Structure formats: C-alpha cells, structure tokens
Amino acid sequence: MRSEGRRRALPAAPLVLVLLAATGCESTPDSRPEPTAAWSTPVARVCAEPGAGPSGAPAGAVTVDPSVTGDVAAKTRNSPPHTTFWLRPGTHRLAADRYAQVVPKTGNVYLGAPGAVLDGRKTNQYAFGGTARDVTLRHLTVQGFVAPHDEGVVNHDSADGWVIEHSTIQNNSGAGLMAGARQRVRANCLRANGQYGMNAYKAGGPLRDLVVEGNEITGNNTDDWERKRPGCGCTGGVKFWSVDGADIRGNWVHDNRGAGLWADTNNNDFRIEENVLEANDGAALIYETSYNAVVRENTIRRNNWVEGRKSADRGDSFPFATVYVSESGGEPRIPARTDRIEIHRNVLEDNWSGITLWENADRFCNSPANTSSGDCTLLVKDTGRCTRPEIATAPLYADCRWRTQRVDIHDNRFVLDKSVVDCAVKCDRMAVLANYGTYPDWSPYQGERVAEAITLEQHNRWHDNVYIGPWKFVAHDPSRVLDSAQWQGAPYRQDAGSTFRARDGG
After folding, report:
1. What is the pLDDT confidence band of residue 41, given thresholds at 50, 70 and 90?
2. What are the two backbone dihedrals, phi and then psi, of residue 55, each rounded to the nearest 5 degrees?
3. CA–CA separation, 392 and 406 (whole Å)
4. What is 365-433 written as a DSSP string?
5. Which of 48, 226, 364, 493 has the greatest count of CB atoms below 10 A from its CB?
6. Distance CA 323, CA 263 (A)
7. Are the CB atoms for 175 and 153 separated by under 8 Å?
8. Do 191 and 178 touch, CB atoms closer than 8 A?
9. What is the mean pLDDT of residues 404-418?
10. Domain ranges across the chain
11. How far, in Å, CA of 475 to CA of 454, rounded?
12. Left (φ > 0), alpha (ψ -120 to 50) or beta: where does 447 sit?
C-alpha cells in the first residue's frame, strides 16, 4: 500500500442545499451557453446534525447495557447470526485488552439509542472486526480506539456487504473505518481520525462495488503521517486502493490534513459527483495510477493552500494541482461505465491551481521508480514480461505503464482571485506534462517521449470551459508556461470554445 505521493523525477442526516450563483451571460464562440453553477450542491452537515437513533429497543432486539463492561461483545458471542442489538444511551466499553473487540455474525445489526457511544478509551485497537458479511451499524458513536497505521477501527477486516449509516466515527487512531465489497457508507460523520476517515483497501483485492454517500468527512489525519513518513502517500480524508466500481456522491469533504479524496493504484470505474470538497490542506482529489472515472457537478473551493504554498516556498516548479490526475486515464479494454476520465460541470473556486495531468516517464511496471509496492497495470498479467527487450515493443511498450490518456475536461468553471488565495505566483496553473525520462538505464521511455505523448498524442483535451482570473497553462514540461492564446494555438490547441475573463462580468 504505497503511493508515489507526487512525482519522483522532478526536483443522510439533513442536507442543506447551497445554491451557487449563476455565471454571467457571455457565450462561447459557437454561441453555446457557458457552463454555469446553477445546479445546487448538497452540503452534508452530518457532524452538527446527526440523525437520532431509536429511543427504544425494536421488537426482538437484544438490549445492550453500558453499565456492563464488554456487554456488546459478550451478547454478540452468545446470540445467533442475524440478531439486532440495541445499545442503550450512555458510554459502552470493551474489556481492557488491546485486542478486545466486537466480532459480529452474519447479518447482525447494531443500533445506537440517542447518546449511545462505544469508547475504546485509547486502549482497544478495534471496535468491530471479523469476516462476517452483511453487518449493519446505525446511529452509533465510535471513538477513542487506537488502530495501528494502515489499519481501521470499524470493519477492521474489510468484510463484505457492511452498511454503516448515521454514525459518528471520530477521534480514533488509524482509519475510522475500512471497507469491503458491496459496502455502503451513508450519512456518517467521519471526523478527526489519526490517519484516514476511511481506508478502502481489501487484501487480495480488487474491492468491488462501494458507495460513499452523504457523509461529512472532516479533520482527518490528525497524526500528520506525511510528516512522520515523508512521501508515504498514506493520508487524507478517504484513500481508495484497487477499488473496482465506486460511487462517491453528495459528501462534504473538508478541512482534512492532506488530500480530501485519493484513489491510488489500479482503481477503476469511479463516479465522483455532487460533492463539496473544500479547505483541505492538499489536493481536493487525486486520481493516481488508475482508470476510467467521471468527475462531475462537484463544488471544489479553497483547497491545496497549505501544500501548494509549501511547494512554492521551496521553489518547486511543478504545477501543484487541486485536481491531480497522475498516471491515470481512460482505458476501453478495462470494463467500466465509461472508457475515459471525464471531468465536467464542476466549479473550482479559489484553489491553489486547477487541474494537472501528469505522467512520470520513469514510473512503469518493474521500474525501481514505481513506488506502488511492485504493482503492475491491469493490462499485464505476467508482470515479468515488463523488462527488456520485450518492453520496448508493442503491446508491452504501452501496456507496461499507467498512461494519462483520454482525459476530457469540459464545461467547468475555474475561478481564481489571488487576493483570496493570498499568492503572487504558482497558484494559477492548469497543466498537462511529464518529466524527461532518465531511469532506469534500460527504460524505453527515456528523453521526451512521454512528455510528447501526454501533451499531443494521448487524447487529453480541455474544451468549453470558463476561466475567470489570471490563469496560466503549462504544457509538455514545467518550463513551458503559456498564456491562453498560446494554450489555444498550435501545437497544443486546447480549450476550443472556452472563455477567458479577468473577472466576472468583464
């Protein structure tokens, strides 16, 4: 579970509807109306307005008493599968053993009464574990557990078919929860956990069919793991690893230390829509070494201020983006609901830079520069073939690397006011680029081959967008900083049908 991090080779609780103002009436050159933010974006204010659980035990439910230490674990052991447990109001505790936990049976349901809390007392590592399928957790606060790095508190063992709804999972170490196949995570408050709000990872993957909907995901990575392990790629609001089929919609992902949402290593078929992603220290969204996604109708504002400014302060010329597509693209040979990465009808406002499409020329299967724990692309079964001399010829020349290709960026609204972001330079970039390939010495991707391909040959396209503010554009490599006319002109020919204005109404 490792990520490149950046790039190696270059130095349902109630939903409050926030109606975004419509844009001005200026039209694109082909007389089509410009993209607007006229749709409404739901803000899932779950943490302040949690849904209340049942005040009495449902018929047939087993009642769990907070005055009896370990009562929920003991009654789970002594009850058959498909039992419903109702946790009375109050603070419930497990035995004072680091491995004490609740191990559900298939089909169990855990319901919290108003005020029901399961507290790990900074002693227990896990709250709910085991491999039982189709477990449900509702209206329960889970806090104070101390899961180790890269492990989680709820559904610790990534069992399949779990439903976690209307719960508050907060102030734990590690990840608040893990994910299994067919998991549904709805209307929860995932707050102030030490590493992630959720870590969607299943050993042996892929993890299929995940829904994350209407959650508030805030203040996670309190332990600041990127500082403890620089370049670990192991932080943020939610991290997705090898997930095949995910719907991420209607969430409020904000004020996380690090990235808001990060899909890393052989994810596929994501729909990321109608979320509000704001005020995260790093990128709002990273889609890395992955495939086929739709990113639409999201409101993305005031992200990347902390990490973007750090990058600028250390003199990094890389366009440090708020939406970062890294070695990811559309691939028709991998089944999904789309065969491209389509980023459209989003509003990006006052972030540190915009969208960067990046491909590391030195990162491919079997390269020492591939830091994704030895993983290979989904197109190569025998990864040992990705070496010389075979890698230099078709089809392995293409299939042994994750390619940023078939990315379609259109009908978005990009707004930048540098006085709001408080920056003078380097926060105003839109980019498509790669590094100069150098490593290893047997690489067939040395020189400018990858930079030429990502910029001109891999069907990456911006069009029909609206830009408000002093935007610049980077193509091919960090040294090529362009104005809008150069960006639209030969050889790049990007942003056909787009409009550029210094300010709204200009």
Report:
1. low
2. -80, -10
3. 22
4. TT-TT-TTTT---TT-S-GGGSSTTGGGSTTHHHHTS----SEEEES-EEE--HHHHT-SSSSSEEEEE
5. 364
6. 12
7. yes
8. no
9. 98
10. 1-11+282-506
11. 9
12. left
Cβ-proximal residues to 367 (8 Å cutoff; 6+ apart), any chain: 439, 440, 443
Give residue 172's Cα distance to chain centre: 20
Cβ atoms of 354 and 325 closer than 8 Å: no
Per-residue pLDDT tens for 324-371? 999 999 999 999 999 999 999 999 999 999 999 999 999 999 999 887
pLDDT at 77: 98
Residue 343 tokens read as: 């980023």
pTM comes to: 0.92
CA separation (Å) from 337 to 157, 172, 294, 379? 29, 35, 9, 18
Beta bridge partners, 84, equal 109
Q: Backbone phi, then psi, for 445, in 5-degree steps? A: -110, 25
Tokens of 352: 């540190």
* Burial class, 30, CB count within 10 angstroms (exposed 0-12 / middle 13-18 / buried 19+): exposed
Closest alpha carbon to 169 in 132, 135, 194, 206? 194
Q: What's residue 14's pLDDT?
A: 35
DSSP state of 456: I
How far is the C-alpha of 42 from the C-alpha of 148, rounded, in Å? 34
Strand 15-19 and strand 40-44: pairing? antiparallel
What region does 386 belong to: left with phi over 0, alpha with psi -120 to 50, or beta? Answer: beta
Number of residues in the chain? 506
Closest to 334 in 3D by CA, of 283, 270, 391, 280 = 270
